[in-house]
Amino acid sequence: MVQIITDSTCDISHQRLEDIGVVCVPLTVHFGEKTFIDGENLTAKEFYEYLRTDSEIPTTAQPTPHSFQEAFQTALDKGDEVVCILISGKLSGTVQSAHIAKDALGSDKIWIVDTNQVCTSLGLLVEIAAKRVKEGATAKELYHEITELSSRAKIYAAIETLKYLRKGGRLSGTAAIVGTMLNLHPIVTVQDGLVLNTAKAKGKKKMISILKDLAKADGVDESYPFMFCHGAAEENLELARECFAEDYDISNGFTGTVGPVVGTYSGPGIVAIGFIIKK
């Protein structure tokens, strides 16, 4: 058998991960001197409440090598091989921790994929991998397939407020004030493993429609599902789903919640889509 292991930036709920048989190694979130384990003693809902009320700018930290070593060893003890599907190594040291753990165990039954993705695009890859395991894919087959799909996975995220980009140092105070006055919403993507600003939208409806325009321009491989995520923004999520349903079959799509890693900089109101680009 093959055990899929991922990290908590996949933004798939714990219940869903359990249902599809995926093990999650969580990142940690720090609000000042308070430390939380993402998804375990800090839910997404609680995170956004802290974000609204706590003056401290939160920070996140990668899992320790020991955390991965425990997860790997548990799978190996069952006789499973491991395919570990993780956040971009350019955004987090999570991949490095996983490699340190693999080296410590000295096992050739652990396959680590640096997806160069995060959030919806990472979550979608995990969902695809879990389905392939049920279909009988080997670890080697899965490693090569997910590595190839990682190069075609795409995320676009529309950010409702500029406040947290400014607080997190990703945007100047002046730019944030001007953007807010003009009702501008940045739309970001991940390219070559890094988060980049790709467009701006004026107003919420335009923000959602641009997400679809960008996906159309890339070319969606409709043999794979979409993944939609939101951060304390169910209204935006439904607007996005309705907008995409006009042109695509989203009935087999997945839904998740944007967690602390992306949420630290986006704040509440974010809506993100993930899909696979045509070859």
UniProtKB/TrEMBL annotation:
The keyword Transmembrane helix does not apply. Pfam families: DegV. Keywords: Lipid-binding. GO terms for molecular function: lipid binding. InterPro entries: DegV, DegV_C, DegV_domain_contain. PANTHER family: DEGV DOMAIN-CONTAINING PROTEIN DR_1986-RELATED, FATTY ACID-BINDING PROTEIN TM_1468. NCBIfam families: DegV. This is DegV domain-containing protein. It comes from Anaerotignum neopropionicum.
